[in-house]
Amino acid sequence: MTGALVSASTGAMGSLLGKLGAMLTDEYKMLKNVRGDIRFLKDELEVMNAFLMKMSDVEEPDEPTKLRVTAVREMSYKIEDNIDKFMVLVDRESCSPEAHGIRKLIDKCNSLLPDVKTRHKIAKEVKDIKNQLKEVSDRFLRYKTDEPSSMPAKDKVDPRLRAVWRDATELVGIDGPRDELVKWLNEKEGESLRSVSIVGYGGLGKTTLATQIRANLGAGATFECGAFVSISRKPDMKAILRSILSQITKQDNAYSGLDDIQLLMDKIREFLQDRRYFIIIDDIWEPGTWETLKCAFVKNTCGSRIMITTRIVDVAKFCSPSNKDLVYEMKPLSEADSKKLFFKRIFGCEESCPDKLKEASKDILKKCHGLPLAINAISSLLATTTETKEEWDRVRHSIRSSKAKSDIIETMNYILSLSYFDLPHHLRSCILYLALFPEDELIERKRLVRRWISEGFIHGESEQDLMKLGEEYFHELVNRSLIQPEGIGYDGKVEYCRVHDTILDFLIAKSSQENLCTVLKKQCKPDGIVRRISLMGTEDEEILEQLDLSHARSIGAFGDIKRLPPLGKSKSLRVLDLQCCYELQNHHIKDIERLYQLRHLDIYGTGITELPKQIGELQYLETLITSYDLCELPESTSRLRRLARLFVGSGCKLPDGLGNLINLQELQCIDALKHVEELGKLTNLRKLEISWRTDGIEGNKLVQSKEKLVSALCKLDKCGLCSLSIDYYLGKKDEEGPFLPALGCIHEVSVYGQDIFWISRWLPSLPNLQKLYFDDPKKIEQQDIEMIGLIPNLLELSLPLYRIDYTQGLIIRCKGFQQLQSFVVYFSRMGDLMFEPGAMPRLKKLTLLSFTGKPKSDAGDFDFGIQYLSSLAHLSVELSCVGSRAAEVKAAEDAFKSMAEANPNRPTLMMTRDFPQEVLQDEQIDMAGSGTINKIISTTFVPVSSRAEDVHTYASLFFRHSISGTTQEKEEAA
Question: Is 601 helix (H, G, I), strand (E, B) or coil?
């Protein structure tokens, strides 16, 4: 895999070797005069690549080695930039694919002169590169002393060992986790060997927690013997087994000469055979280590326990595989505990902190995000500084800089570097790339993976789905606790991530060392060549003007940025990501058609309404994500032969010749009836989202369009279309029923319209439908619910009930929804919904939105049958506060807590208050009466398309004007 990757370890060397190999093939016959030089480059670079790969695993290289690595890596980028220019020249001067016969011959003749010129130019450039390579090699040979090596070993103590001997009085926030795990470890049930795995990212205090548990259990004399051993990334199994044996037998040096692993295991097993033991294995990195170690531990019935700490979720699960074991996930410190730890180490308590330092303290604690390692490091640093506001502000603003370095900061970086160097090379590039995103940024998984692909960080086998492979990379970083998951679905997939500030600091420093990413600092021009850069809107204008981005491969922008540096000279640019920079306009992307290397263009959420007419010149473009304000794609878009992912709004007009985009794999979202002729030609599509609207189409034309669409979709289904999403906008012409066959590729359907009766009869015929969403239906009957429940593989369902009038509510019966795992319901009244015993047997996540019902007397009036959902793991409730008293909202919250506790699966409960500022005060209720809001909601002034939250907002505003405003104000509110 490394042979074709752009890597933090080897620069562009991997992809460069692949390109040089391509230039030796028949496709580049025009380069025959320089083939010998290209072979020389390829052979030389293979040796250099091997050197870089070897050095990438040296954690502390000496200075000469650092200089050599940097020179070789930068040379690889420079060579690739030149090779890419050659390839663009060759591609642009070759005949167009549409040319045939005489026309092709004429084109070839017309291109003869520039073809000769191109050959000479390439030959000259290749010779220059060859000479530069020789110069680099000769330079290091002249000053060579020894083979490249690491720095001499220092007599450093593993900083994790400090946690073993830390005084318990120094610790904060550990009592709860410690007591919970001690209670679990002391349980007598079964008395068989059981294990607990503690998992979390570096610096959360796993070792400290394990040490305190050991001390607590030791004080109670509940175990006859025990041992505590720390594991390195490359463990010495003999030394570890000797340590365990020495600790359990309490004979320190008795086994120092024993080197036979099998004999050591036998002695450990013999000693533990009839004893109740407690073993702690600290910081395991891979399952193989545990596979070996567990052979030494006897599975007796004495109530023995084993505790493992690790940073990797899969390792934790592997070490604690049975349902009697436990995987305990470490959490950051709460805000209160963070403050307590921080101020305790500096002043003894928070009250002793001078007022002038509190603002800086608050900002510093925010950066630490509850990470004990970071809090300890920075508070220890501050404890040695003078207590002046200027000094604390200096530390606050320079936490990421070399000015803030100390032994404790170095310790923090050392612990984080263990996780970094444990990564395979391709994941190191992916994690360092996150240095380009701002602090606390919520990073979408798909957005990140697309950028990785365009940067060349992901390379699969022939025809392998790179998006799928990239998502595996993403989840591996989550698994290793290097990024924090956000938006975890019922299926365990993570939609978003964040990077802890402390880890981000490490990534910024490391990516700067590798010259992978450049993070601009205020009033400071970046050193060296800029390869990848992000603009946050806080950059100095003068520095922005002076930026040399001629070698930049990636430019990203965030927030309310209003200007970009000139893009025309960034000829090496692969990625231009402007997502959600709403201030950017059409002129900001002027000249992008000259960025011939561009692979990824994202203008979603910007004010850009037009793309340059010459967009078709971007022959390497793979991903194009447009804004919803873009009304039309230029005609030249159909020439983007390498385009693999195209995302447009459903109202965007696409050019003729859409079928020419033969490499397109993802297409979202197009009006099916307007582009039906071209769809069937896109036989490489794997994901497709279409919208169905019949407005403006009459008679035979509609019939013909339906027939063509059926034909096109059936063809794509046979050609390997994996996922088809359909947005149905129902109208009067659709009352005859759905016309599409039950295609296996239909995975998602969204229905917009008022009457769903006809479509509910079609849905159960779809064998692979997984996601179903309804928007604002006017009428849903019990029979509709039961028909939907028959969809064989439905996993997600979203159902709005807040605008529907019932004589009685809907009942979810036990016969339907056998596979459903996520159910989102928008509703506002008691009695809208009820679950029967045995309903939705696999449901994991239930989300209740916009609930405003009030109990008649007590919590029992809230019973929806939630206790019957046997697999429920997560219950989310959004309580609308509009029109409710504070006591009523509190009663509803208590009721949902009771329902969650009544469920035998004990689901996690998350409750939020929507519009908390709209809670009615008692005097308002007295003046207008408690039923006023509900009466207002039922009036006709509320927009028909409004979601429940908006309905209540309008009602609340009207209500407030009705009790205090003038007649004119009431009319304006209405």
Answer: strand
Contact by Cβ (8 Å): 353, 343: yes
Whether 108 shows a pLDDT value over 50: the answer reads: no
Q: What share of the chain is helix, strand, coil (3-state, %, to 5)?
A: 45, 15, 40
φ/ψ of 774, rounded to 5, equals -115, 145
Q: How many domains are there within the chain?
A: 6
SS (H, E, C) 95-128: CCCCCCHHHHHHHHHHCHHHHHHHHHHHHHHHHH
Domain assignment of residue 910, yes or no = no
Domain boundary among 83, 109, 142: 142
Give strand pairing partners of 281: 229, 308
Six token digits for residue 373:
């390692």
- Same structural domain for residues 195 and 286? yes
Looking at residue 325, what DSSP letter applies? Answer: S
Q: Which of 664, 692, 709 is the last residue of a domain?
A: 664
Helices then strands, counting H and E runs in the chain, come out as 30, 26
Positive or negative torsion for Cα 265, 268, 270, 276: negative
State which residues form the domain around 405.
335-412
How far the first Cα of the chain sits from its last, in Å, is 64
Residue 567 inside a domain? The answer is yes
- Strand-pair category, 225-230 with 277-284: parallel
| Greatest CA separation for the chain | 96
Q: How far apart are CA 915 and CA 849, in angstroms?
A: 13
Per DSSP, the three-state class of 501 is helix
806-834 pLDDT tens trace = 656 789 999 999 999 999 998 766 667 88
Contact 539, 438 (CB under 8 A): no
- Per DSSP, 45 falls in state H
Bond from prior residue into 669 cis (ω within 30 degrees of 0):
yes
Exposure string for 205-234, b = 16+ CB within 10 A, e = fewer: bbbbbbbbbbebbeeeeebebbbbbbbeee
For 719-783, strand residue ranges (E) read: 723-729, 746-752, 771-775
Q: Note the pLDDT of residue 966.
A: 35
pLDDT band at 520 (very low <50, low <70, confident <90, very high): confident
Residues 641 and 605 in one domain: yes
| CATH at residue 603 | 3.80.10.10
Strand (E) or helix (H) holding 280:
strand 277-284
Same domain, 272 and 375: no
d(C-alpha 524, C-alpha 145), whole Å: 36
CA distance 837 to 843: 13
Beta-sheet pairing, 796-800 with 746-752: unpaired
Whether residues 174 and 272 share a domain: the answer is yes
Give residue for tokens 């100095």: 540
Placement of tokens 């110069």 in the chain: 135
362 in the same domain as 290: no
Answer whether residue 389 is part of any domain. yes
**Dist CA 16 CA 30 (whole Å):** 19
Label residue 65 by pLDDT band (50, 70, 90): confident
Q: SS3 of 188, please?
A: coil
Q: What is the pTM of this model?
A: 0.79
For residue 279 the two structure tokens come to 């073993």
Per-residue pLDDT tens for 733-757?
656 666 788 999 999 999 887 677 7
Quick one: which of 685, 371, 645 has its CA closest to 502? 371
Higher per-residue pLDDT: 700 or 808? 700
Q: Which helix (H) or strand (E) holds 910?
A: strand 908-914
Residues 321 and 202 in one domain: yes
The verdict on 279 and 219 lying in the same domain is: yes
Q: Which of 789, 844, 784, 783 is nearest to 815 (CA)?
A: 789
